[in-house]
Design a protein that fits this description.
The chain has 25 helices and 26 strands. It has 814 residues and is α/β, with parallel strands linked by helices. It folds into five domains: 134 residues, TIM Barrel (Alpha-Beta Barrel); 193 residues, 3-Layer(aba) Sandwich (Rossmann fold); 68 residues, no CATH class; 118 residues, Immunoglobulin-like, CATH 2.60.40.10; 104 residues, no CATH class. The strands form seven sheets. A six-stranded mixed sheet has the order 9-14-13-12-10-11. It has a five-stranded parallel sheet with strand order 1-2-3-5-8. A four-stranded mixed sheet has the order 7-6-4-16, with no helix packed on it. A hairpin with a 2-residue loop joins β25 and β26. It binds beta-D-glucopyranose (BGC).
Amino acid sequence: MKYKDLIEKMTLEEKASLMSGKDFWTTQNIDRLGIRSMFLADGPHGIRKQAAAADHLGLNASIPATCFPPAATVANSWNVELGETIGDYLGKEAVAQQVDVLLGPGINMKRNPLCGRNFEYFSEDPYLAGKMGASYIRGIQSHGISACVKHFAVNNQEERRMSIDTIVDERTLRELYLTAFEIAVKEGKTKTVMSSYNQLNGSYTNESIHLMKEILRDEWGFDGVVVTDWGGSNDRVAGLLAGNELEMPTTAGETNEEIIQAIRNGIIKEEVLDECVDRLLDLNFTTEAALNKSQEIDFKKHHKVAQRAAEESIVLLKNEGKILPLQKGKTVAVIGDFAKEARYQGAGSSIVNPTILDNILDCFGQSGIVNIGYEPGFERYGKKNIKKLNKACTLAKEADVVLFYMGLDEATEAEGLDREDMEIPENQIDVLNALYKVNPNIVAILSCGSAVEMPWIDKVKGLVHGYLAGQAGARAILSVLSGEVNPSGKLAESYPIQYEDTPSYYHFPGKEVSIEYRESIYIGYRYYDSANKEVRFPFGYGLSYTTFKYSNIQVDKDSVTFELRNTGGVAGMEIAQLYVGCKSEAIFRAKKELKGFTKIFLNAGETKKVTLYFDDKTFRYFNVKTNKWEVEEAEYEISIGASSADIRLTDTLFVQGTGAPIPYDKDQLSTYYSGRANQVGAKEFEHLIGYKLPVSKWDRSQPLGYNDTIAQCQYAKGGIARFAYSVMIFAHWFLRKIGKRSTANIIMMSVYHMPFRGVARMTGGVVNMPMLDGILTIVNGQFFKGLNQVLRERRKMTRVAKEKNPLAKAIKES
Ligand code: BGC
């Protein structure tokens, strides 16, 4: 242990006190030993340091900070240097705001397009997400503070996120859901990892010895700190045993006491606690040194970096008849509520209070594009508005080109709840259809953080996907429209034609006890490609104002080399993608997988030689028989593509294997071997996971317990609980009805899906576990007994608090 001497000076109580927060955002200090408290703040795309009222849902304002585009956007840049630059600027601002641990990046896989938090994650591909995540971490930590990669692991839905049990086979876990984290730990060297809320194959991730010890610490060599997601600790002692150093936020000492008792009763050894303290102290002392250096922030410069980030991440999806870039002097009508009120970031814990916010309507000045007017056309949260629609059409008739700003609203893509469908609201499409009739020269600018269906695509000639472009996004989009910037973003996720096409369509989200990842390794393009399913836009797709030619592929055992030429008339950047597919059919696999990528700048007419090196991940697969990464001896197809569906060069390579036995019985897993794994039966899935599927439905006959959710009050024995449930549902319905969707969402985010234990974990000690027992007694039908217990505990708490307060004690004694 690094801090043995200091730890020996600590009492058991002092050591345990470090294991949970002091309040919502800070850790406990021990002044007599010179241990200060650390500040943890969200978030992934800007600092959200709340100086006054604290919450984890983005409700209360934070100190202004640069709002960079979120991960879903920057992923489209496929530029790790850019990721590192953003991390660097985030780190600078964090130091300036005296933040020790920045809670990001979030690198969970986009298993399903409806996950409400997809805007905060990078990709459906673990290699891309891992590389981008690691780059942010390196940038942030170059300032000596800590990043905190999250949410470890398999947290891929918001519905019941604090209790859902994710059932996934070991190979898929390793290859798909953990690889990005592995890269973040090994290459990013993150100092902190945030455990996720959910369960994994029957254990809370924070308590899973397999995940937290065997994989994270032993295999990957992680020696930093694990912090729980806010309110995500279930059994504190089990968490400690799995190596969870810090529980957040505060529990007013209640769970520290559980640790003390477990040590006194011999359930755990004091050394387990000492080791956790040691790692936590290391984090504390190293970040302390970093915060002592002063950091001046030039916010204008940071704004420029946010603009560059957006410019490199915008994806041009359609450009019929070369409608873009707009020629100088072209007149445009700006239509759509999203033009005036840009949708530039997501909602929830990552919400940033921007330092500056560009508005497209103020930006046309020097662009050469002549804006003849603006009309909202539709109401973001409302129904069809004929008056607004007509006004928009009248304006559209006058312009050469219509710029139609459309997208998803803030209440649709938010932390804490998943989307209901993949559609753009109907009132926006009504306007688009009407505009098309009066002026078909339409360029749509899309603002949203995840994939949407596009049955309306024939109505637009140009489609610019800005994703959520951050505080400088408006200007960045304009530079793409005007041609000042040649678009170079490519999609980091697939766009299915319709939601029903997605591989997890039949198994998303888990609504009761569990969610079964029956599609196994076939997520995103791995499925569409292997099942030959047509998509609207494939993974890795994006257009440019120039064209590129790939030639001369050469493959050797370590690398692939090829030539890339800019064959168009303007300079541009191309993202070349390396895909590898195994030709043997002994083990079921995706047709091909991303194993490398690079972004290259080329002047018009310029040619460059490009080499992509293979690494430890190029040929590996996880073998469930040997429980190790292995390489299958086979011929491999090495492809270079401009997207996953646009392969330009291919060669083959024979690779010697590690000689491991074939882990599967092909006859038992025929759907997986066929690649069409969107409807796998229970029996086949059981064969894959190797155990009988746990019951996925709530047992309505049992009394409700700590891990049951408030939503389950609908079948509680206690009438008052059922009544409370009905009130909640009514309030939610009513708020939506009167157009207050954001407020309605808060009910879902903060109450509906919360397990009862969360009531104790998230109230900073106002409700303790014995009081929670009382509440559960009421919920389970014994009103007076439960109420008595709650009141008794409340009195006890007040008495103890008074005794602890020396002034109150002195008054009492005098
Ligand atoms: C989110 C985390 C976030 C934390 C603190 C949680 O609800 O899941 O991503 O860092 O709150 O705001």
